[in-house]
TrEMBL record:
It comes from the Eukaryota. It is found in: Cytoplasm; Nucleus. It holds the Pfam family TPD. This is CDAN1-interacting nuclease 1. GO terms for cellular component: cytoplasm; nucleus. Keywords: Cytoplasm, Nucleus. PANTHER family: CDAN1-INTERACTING NUCLEASE 1, SIMILAR TO CDNA SEQUENCE BC052040.
Amino acid sequence: TQLKTTYYHIQAQSSTILQQYESEIAENPNDDSILLNKSIDVKFSPVGLARLLLTEKYKGSKTKGDISNMVKSPYLIPDMALAANKVGLVFHDEGDLRRTGYDKTPDLKLVVPCLYRGIPIHWIESKALFGDVSNHEKYVREQLSCYQNRFGAGIVIYWMGYIESLDRDENIFVRDSFPDPSELTLLK
């Protein structure tokens, strides 16, 4: 059938489409129409394209079930801007902050803080690695304490997991995924 043919054609191009998508996201991180426009360009459903791009991006590291869960619950996707947009957070990204003169910047600086575990959160940092004691101490020393001093409490996400004993600072929360919307209270 036509849909099956289109699927295999798009699947064969998924690496190229993913590179284009990530490039467009990097240029316009707050544009939430990029996936929709890309799906129109390739004449494929947005959900189907999202599934193919996630499968390509996490090839070998995520199961089919993980991908399905990400499609159903986008906050599970290790993509800071996407996850933050989906839970309704308004933020400045690293590029925005650098343009205004900041040298050391978190991945996301919230315009309006949100509550996490009853504490106002002002920033979120993302690390695509495992959070062990050595890495975490280095990041606290070189980055995270700077963000905490400048902006207040924040969250660091180690997407490959972390040692639980790291999550003991009351102003730098450690996680391995973006917080579920039920864990955040949006402030106005």
